[in-house]
Amino acid sequence: MTALAPRPSRPADAPFLGVGVGLRPKHYPRILAESEPGALGVDFVEALSENYMVPGGRPLRVLADVRARFPIVLHGVSLNIGSADPLRQSYLDELKVLTQRFEPVFVSDHLCWTGVDGHNLHDLVPLPFTETALRYVAERVKRVQDHLGRRLALENVSSYFAYSEDAMPEWEFLARIAERADCGILLDVNNIFVSAHNHGFQALDYLRAIPPERVFQIHLAGHSQEGELLIDTHDRPIRDEVWSLYEAAVQRIGLVSTLIEWDDRIPEFHELAAEAARARAVMVRVGGEEERERSA
Predict the structure, then answer these.
(1) From CA 143, how far away is CA 290, in angstroms rounded?
(2) Stated pTM of the model
(3) Which of 71, 62, 75 is CA-nearest to residue 38?
(4) What is the mean pLDDT of residues 163-172?
(5) For 66, how many CA atoms within 13 A lie in the half-sphere containing its CB?
(6) Distances (CA, A) of 160 to 31, 128, 225, 234
(7) Following CA atoms 264, 281, 66, 265 in sequence, which dihedral angle do they give, to the nearest 10 degrees?
(8) Could you tell me if 49 and 94 are in contact, meaning their C-beta atoms sit under 8 angstroms apart?
């Protein structure tokens, strides 16, 4: 049996929440109808920040009701942290209001850019992995964290092209951003698998380079295939190969709050709960291996 890595000492703002699912309108009735939240088979809920950055109405009422039942985390798609555009002060102000109202355990977004010159590409575009980009993004992350009064967790995105000026692998870029900006990492295991296939690197090399103590949360999702390309579609169950990579991640990083993402062709809630149960089983299995290793 492969020796398990020593468990890192996690910061106070990165507690272990268990296994969660994304909050989607389709599942509002199921979640709110359950008088015993534990019966749903999930431990926390992740809300898309932009869906609730509104002055009022049903979305905020629902989020308040969910927050009364579960810990919540906020996950954004529009911070645009890597863009040449200035940070949008109105966006940061609205995000700060949302975090102060609902007190999420984590606030996260993506290590990417999503638009320039005020135009939104509606996609998560990878950054060039250069020293210049590293310094630029880290300073912007610090400014965002100072404004919010809390640390961010930045997610690695799936990618379908690379830049000729790349000077380091993605995993080094991500780890150095986290260190320089003193932020967390939202480690998307499916994105690692997708990008490893598309670019021809070893997914385990990526995992080995990530500082465990920086990982606040893990994402798991399904992907699709178009010819030779894997696409991060979040519209189907998690593949067995990604589950294997997740188990390797837990062996290296330890127990980390893990979220099941499913954003298109959204199934009934019980299917999400089944995926959550599978993630929980991985944690239990790895924990059992740890205990046997300690006994030996």
Answers:
(1) 40
(2) 0.94
(3) 71
(4) 98
(5) 32
(6) 36, 13, 12, 16
(7) 10
(8) no
Q: Alpha-carbon distance 114 to 121, whole Å?
A: 6
Helices (H), 254-296: 269-295
Which ranges of the chain does DSSP label H, i.e. alpha helix? 28-33, 58-69, 89-102, 131-148, 170-181, 189-199, 203-209, 240-253, 269-295
Residues 6+ away with beta carbon under 8 Å from 61: none
| Cα 78 to chain centroid, rounded | 14
What is the rounded distance in angstroms from the CA atom of residue 4 to the CA atom of residue 170? 24
Cα gap 98→100, rounded to integer Å: 5
**Amino acid letter for position 95:** L
* Cα gap 172→163, rounded to integer Å: 15
The span from the CA of 155 to the CA of 215, in Å, is 10
What b-and-e string marks burial along 143-182, b requiring 16 or more CB atoms within 10 Å of the CB? ebbeebebbbbbbbbbbbeeeeeeeeebbebbbbbbeebe
Q: Cβ(246)–Cβ(203) under 8 Å?
A: no
% of the chain beyond a pLDDT of 90 = 88
Length of the chain: 296
| Helix, strand and coil in the chain, % to nearest 5 | 45, 20, 35
Q: Which residue has the tokens 């009022």?
A: 56
Query: Tens digit of pLDDT for each residue in 13-68?
Result: 899 999 999 999 999 999 999 878 789 999 999 999 999 999 999 999 999 999 99
Q: Which residue has the tokens 């239990």?
A: 284
Parallel, antiparallel, or unpaired for β 224-226 and 229-231? antiparallel
User: What CA–CA distance (Å, rounded) separates 136 from 100?
Assistant: 27
Instruction: Tell me the pLDDT tens digit for each residue of 67-119.
Output: 999 999 999 999 999 999 999 999 999 999 999 999 999 999 999 999 998 88
